[in-house]
TrEMBL record, chain A:
The chain crosses the membrane at residues 20-40, 52-85, 97-122, 142-162, 191-213, 219-237, 244-265, 277-296. It comes from Tritonibacter horizontis. This is High-affinity branched-chain amino acid transport system permease protein LivH. Keywords: Amino-acid transport, Cell membrane, Membrane, Transmembrane, Transmembrane helix, Transport. Its main location: membrane. Belongs to the binding-protein-dependent transport system permease family. LivHM subfamily. It is found in: Cell membrane. InterPro entries: ABC_transp_permease (IPR001851), BCAA_transport_permease (IPR052157). One of its GO terms (cellular component) is plasma membrane. GO terms for molecular function: transmembrane transporter activity.
Automatic annotation (TrEMBL), chain B:
It comes from the Bacteria. It is a multi-pass membrane protein. The lineage of its organism: Bacteria, Pseudomonadati, Pseudomonadota, Alphaproteobacteria, Rhodobacterales. One of its GO terms (cellular component) is plasma membrane. Its main location: membrane. The chain crosses the membrane at residues 38-57, 62-80, 100-119, 126-149, 169-190, 223-240, 260-285, 297-320. It is found in: Cell membrane. PANTHER family: ABC TRANSPORTER ATP-BINDING PROTEIN, HIGH-AFFINITY BRANCHED-CHAIN AMINO ACID TRANSPORT SYSTEM PERMEASE. This is Leucine/isoleucine/valine transporter permease subunit. It comes from Tritonibacter horizontis. Keywords: Cell membrane, Membrane, Transmembrane, Transmembrane helix. GO terms for molecular function: branched-chain amino acid transmembrane transporter activity.
């Protein structure tokens, strides 16, 4: 077990963490501002990935593919917000869960209908392919490093947007008191559509970026969606800071426990049962982490006390 | 007799007449479909106790369904392989007897519901939904990595398990058995909601503060409801596994949790026969639409959206009006 391996795995954890953050940020924003549980967020991730793969297939340009992902996901988000989601803001969580579950069915089967059941592939752009040598002689894939940087940049951008712009003020005010900001002359329903589209665009971006290292297929959004839920529950629903810390915690736990727990168990028991027990516990580790956090703080690390 | 009672009676009569209809039209497969509907109705009837009366939006009920399925799978696997389930500290053999399997399914799912409920009920609202969802995933991944019992592939059982005095391989007899269990559970639910427990649970959903003021602990009521609910869904899981003679981790999947919830909402939340109406409709849609198009989930999604947005009482609400049992 060398230091290099440990650092490599930490970078992997960081990479999956920042990508999770893109998903979780939209989810937590939508919950914080509109009070909506959006199960269909994973579908928007999928929409982004498919749009990127389709455009990359046609044009061969990764930049255009990313733009397509952003536009397609934001557009899909705005459309479902206007047609469906808008009617759910005053409903209870049960109706929201059901309606967005229905949207998942429609999105997944619709995508299967258009693109077929076979996975698509999105290639890493040439400029970002291949390994890069980090200080200390660590070879690490350049693309994954780019993902970390991109994720962090988006995070900073989001922070500036929320904390330093007029739109951000409106969003934060909308979280606290929607009647009041409506009375102050802010078009609340336009603001909601905008926030939803923003969250959708972030999900679509994550889908396209991750789509280049995994295959693009129907159903790819749901595992990520559930991880993102775990993230925002750990971080506290509605808190972007919580989503960031939660995403890194989940990304690192998921990656590191999966690699090191079997090795650790091998010190105490035979190799075969150690591997199987280790991987069994590892796959459950983030859910165990979440239960522990919730037992300690029932509304997450940075959540408002319920 | 109210319209809802009439509707419920018609549903029950319909289920009783299915075998006769299948014999007359010479379509024995109808019985298998009806068995599926009855078992799904049983799973949903379990969730309806937590969701409908207690207001607990559990997106993790597939946990109990899966536990029931694996209780059947594990016991039958050892029985058909003639290997003991456990050798130490005492020998436990597998079994192919349904009553024993059911008992184990009920007990283990109730225990799981107790633990999950104790942890999850500390939270409310959106957190509760997500933590139950996460517990579901925990069990799902555990089942996938549990290679001793098939891992991701699941496991098959060669012959359906036995029930004393019946030939469970005959579709009609197995159907009768499942229907009888469903009726028992529905009678139990009907009595439960009129009993002091059901009434206080109803109040715990609507005004927990008042309940506390009269000295009842809403948390404990909800926990008991969650345990009962999980146990019933667990029983349904054992039957479902026996119907297919197959268990796999998909029984634990969160999509399945969503589906059980869909059955309850489609039929009408909190209505006694809501789960039955929901399950029958679901299986009928699956069969009819599934025969027309490979992409029938699109239509299911649209119907579901329609129910959530425009017909909040579900099917029972549409047919029997809104006033009845659900506040």
């Amino acid at each position: 077990m060398s230091t290099i391996l440990i650092i490599e795995q930490m970078l992997n954890g960081l990479q999956s963490g920042v990508m999770l953050f893109l998903m979780a940020a939209g989810l937590t924003l939508i919950f914080g501002v509109m009070g909506l549980i959006n199960l269909a967020h994973g579908s928007l991730y999928m929409v982004g990935a498919f749009a990127a793969a389709a455009v990359a297939g046609l044009t061969g340009s990764f930049v255009l593919a990313l733009m397509a992902a952003l536009v397609a996901a934001a557009l899909a988000g705005a459309v479902i917000e206007i047609l469906v989601i808008r009617r759910l803001y005053d409903s209870d969580h049960l109706d929201q869960v059901l309606a967005t579950f229905a949207l998942i069915l429609i999105f997944s089967e619709g995508t299967r209908w258009v693109f077929g059941s076979f996975p698509l592939f999105l290639d890493i752009p040439d400029a970002l392919s291949g390994p890069v040598t980090l200080p200390g002689g660590i070879e690490y894939p350049l693309y994954r490093l780019a993902l970390i940087v991109a994720g962090l940049l988006v995070g900073v951008g989001l922070w500036v947007l929320i904390e330093r712009t007029r739109l951000g003020i409106q969003i934060r005010a909308g979280e606290n008191d929607r009647e009041m900001i409506a009375a102050l002359g802010v078009d609340i329903s336009k603001l909601y559509t905008l926030v939803f589209a923003l969250g959708a665009a972030l999900a679509g971006l994550a889908g396209a970026l991750v789509g280049a290292i995994q295959s693009v297929q129907v159903g790819m959004g749901e595992p990520v969606l559930i991880l993102a839920f775990v993230v925002i529950v750990i971080g506290g629903i509605g808190s972007i800071k919580g989503a960031f810390i939660g995403a890194l915690l989940v990304g690192l736990t998921d990656t590191l426990v999966g690699i090191f727990l079997p090795e650790l168990l091998k010190l105490f028991m035979d190799a075969a049962p150690a591997t199987s027990a280790g991987s069994a516990i590892a796959s459950m580790s983030i859910y165990i982490l979440m239960s522990l956090v919730l037992i300690w703080r029932p509304s997450g690390l940075f959540g408002a006390r319920a | 007799m109210s319209r809802e009672t009439l509707f419920n009676a018609a549903l029950l009569l319909g289920l009783l007449l299915v075998p006769i209809w299948a014999l007359l039209t010479d379509e024995p497969f109808t019985i298998t479909l009806a068995t599926r509907a009855v078992i799904l109705a049983l799973a949903a009837a379990g969730l309806n106790i937590a969701l409908g009366i207690g207001g607990l939006v559990s997106l993790g009920h597939a946990v109990f369904f899966g536990i029931g399925g694996y209780a059947m799978g594990i016991l039958a696997h050892h029985a058909q392989g003639f290997t003991p389930l456990m050798e130490w500290p005492f020998v436990i053999e597998g079994t192919k007897s349904m009553p024993v399997i059911w008992l184990l399914a009920i007990v283990v799912s109730a225990l799981a519901a107790l633990v999950i409920g104790l942890l999850s009920l500390r939270t409310t609202g959106a957190y509760f939904i997500m933590i139950t969802l996460a517990f579901g995933q925990m069990f799902y991944y555990f089942a996938i990595s549990w290679s001793a019992y098939g891992g991701e592939d699941g496991m098959s059982i060669y012959v359906r398990n036995d029930f004393p005095g019946l030939n469970t391989l005959a579709p009609i007899q197995f159907y009768g058995l499942c229907l009888a269990l469903l009726v028992v559970v529905l009678v139990f639910s009907a009595r439960l909601r009129r009993a002091p427990f059901g009434l206080s649970l109803n109040a715990a959903r609507q005004v927990p503060a008042r309940l506390e003021a009269v000295g009842l602990d809403p948390m404990r009521l909800k926990l008991v409801a969650f345990v009962i609910s999980g146990a019933i869904t667990g029983l349904a899981g054992a039957l479902f596994a026996d119907l297919n003679r197959f268990v796999s981790p998909t029984m634990f999947s969160w999509q399945f949790s969503g589906e059980i919830m869909v059955l309850v909402i489609l039929g009408g939340v909190g209505r006694l026969f809501g789960p039955v109406a929901g399950a029958v409709t679901f299986v009928a849609l699956e069969h009819v639409l599934g025969g027309l198009t490979e992409f029938w989930h699109i239509y299911l999604g649209l119907i579901l959206l329609g129910v959530v947005l425009f017909a909040r009482g579900g099917i029972t609400g549409l047919i029997a009006g809104r006033e009845a049992s659900h506040d």
